[in-house]
Automatic annotation (TrEMBL):
Keyword set includes Glycosyltransferase: no
Matches recorded under NCBIfam families: PRK05939.1
PANTHER family, alphabetized: HOMOCYSTEINE/CYSTEINE SYNTHASE, HOMOCYSTEINE_CYSTEINE SYNTHASE
Essential cofactor(s): pyridoxal 5'-phosphate
Gene Ontology CC: cytoplasm
Similarity comment: family membership: Belongs to the trans-sulfuration enzymes family.
Entry annotated with the keyword Transmembrane helix: no
Gene Ontology molecular function, alphabetical: cysteine synthase activity; O-acetylhomoserine aminocarboxypropyltransferase activity; pyridoxal phosphate binding
GO biological process, one term: cysteine biosynthetic process from serine
Protein's name in the database: Cystathionine gamma-synthase family protein
Pfam family, any one: Cys_Met_Meta_PP
Length: 414
């Protein structure tokens, strides 16, 4: 399949490995477990090391199985290149490690994945100042910019309260100011939304979540969309400026972030994720429609105090979400009315499983303040809009009728 036809999202993923020809006509890219790569000619080894010809050297910096997945993610995001990491946090950590220095300033959405929030607290102690803003309005981002701002960081749909960042306007602002715009696309995935379309320079995906999709492998990725002009970035070392400027960012991240920090994706995990990704579009269609049905059921129930899901007309960013995303995703959260014990409610569910992952095929449910946001404490939780009774649901691909029945029965017991 070497024609240049513009195939759709799923066709492209399914047939991408074959573009480069696979060993023995295998239909899947095989799992390469070798740590080292040998060359018949020692000069060739040297020239691979010096970046003068392509090739693999040592597993920490990549291998053929991981490269095949990187290619797939690049296609999904329509970028110029991707680097995979052991986890989503490995990918986000590499951005900071490779691109930021003491004295730099970052503007970040205040509505963040808990561990990203924790990481930002750490970088503050390392001399990188982070301003947390309500990124649902570009004006807050603009007001927080300083001459030292290097990066603006947002998530598409925030986990767990589902606030949607003012993605397009923030992109315009970053482009006008020459600031690197980093978008964590985990909640939407490249099937629902391509951050490149709103001017993002780097895209984070926690492959662990919907892209892998089966809760059986950890992984993360960073994709360079080609939108950002790395000539504008002040901290690119001369060493990484050998190729065209479009490659500078990833060259530095692969060396300073992946190679030196070592959060390398395992080849077995890369294989699981690549297989999972083949059905990403199908799963996102199903989880989105299940999530909308569940959100509507919860919203109509008198025992429920609030429901947060961008697909509901009552969601503050419902309109903008409809313009930006193909559908509204698999994540929702809700609060039960005062006096209803959320643990008793969770224990009555038979299908939804109390567990902390998301983007799995199975519906997972978690009381946020008592678990994933526990370490943060009540003050910071309140500033992020996390009520003590908030319950997050990562909606799976179960049959809709079974899923709704499960919640109906559990609510009836309240
Ligand atoms: C889970 C998640 C991450 C981190 O991914 P891991 O693979 O668990 O390290 C980052 N961002 C978002 C939005 C996530 O949901």
């Amino acid at each position: 399949m070497n024609d240049k036809k513009n195939y759709g999202f799923t066709t492209t993923i399914l047939h991408n490995d074959r573009q480069k020809g696979i060993e023995h006509g295998s239909l899947h890219k095989p799992i390469h477990t070798s740590v080292a790569f040998g060359y018949g000619d020692a000069r060739q080894l040297a020239s691979v090391f010096q970046g003068k010809e392509p090739g693999f050297r040592y597993g920490r910096q990549g291998n053929p199985t991981i490269s095949a997945l990187e290619d797939k993610v690049t296609k999904m995001e329509q970028g110029v290149g991707t680097i995979c990491f052991a986890t989503g946090m490995g990918a986000i950590g590499a951005v900071f490690q490779a691109l930021l220095r003491a004295g730099d300033h970052v503007v970040s959405s205040a509505f963040l994945f808990g561990n990203t929030n924790s990481l930002w607290q750490t970088t503050a102690g390392q001399g990188v100042d982070v301003a947390f803003v309500d990124a649902t309005d570009v004006a807050n981002v603009e007001a927080a910019l300083t001459p030292a701002t290097r990066i603006v960081f947002v998530e598409t749909i925030a986990n767990p309260r589902t606030q949607v960042a003012d993605l397009k306007r923030i992109g315009e602002l970053c482009q006008a100011r020459g600031i690197l715009y980093v978008v964590d696309n985990t909640m939407t995935t490249p099937y629902l939304f391509r951050p490149k379309d709103v001017g993002a320079g780097l895209v984070v995906n926690a492959l662990t979540k919907s892209i892998g999709g089966h809760g059986n492998a950890l992984g993360g990725s960073l994709t360079d969309t080609g939108v950002y002009d790395w000539n504008q970035y002040p901290h690119i070392y001369e060493n990484y400026k050998k190729a065209a400027p479009a490659q500078w960012g990833l060259a530095q991240i692969r060396a300073k972030g992946l190679r030196d920090f070592g959060a390398s994706l395992a080849p077995e995990a890369a294989h699981h994720i690549a297989v999972g990704a083949e059905t990403l579009a199908l799963r996102m269609e199903r989880t989105s429609s299940n999530a909308l049905a569940l959100a509507r059921l919860l919203e109509a129930d008198e025992r429920v105090a609030a429901v947060y899901y961008p697909g509901l007309a009552t969601h503050p960013q419902h309109g903008i979400s409809g313009e930006l995303f193909r559908s509204y995703g698999s994540l929702l959260s809700f609060e039960l009315k005062d006096g209803i014990d959320c643990f008793d409610f969770l224990n009555r569910l038979k299908l939804a499983i109390p567990a902390s992952n998301l983007g799995d095929t199975r519906t997972l449910i978690i009381p946020v303040a008592h678990t994933i946001f526990y370490e943060m404490g009540p003050v910071r939780r309140a500033s992020m809009g996390i009520a003590e009774s908030l319950i997050r649901v990562s909606v799976g691909i179960e049959d809709e009728v079974d899923l709704l029945d499960d919640f109906r029965a559990a609510l009836a017991g309240c």
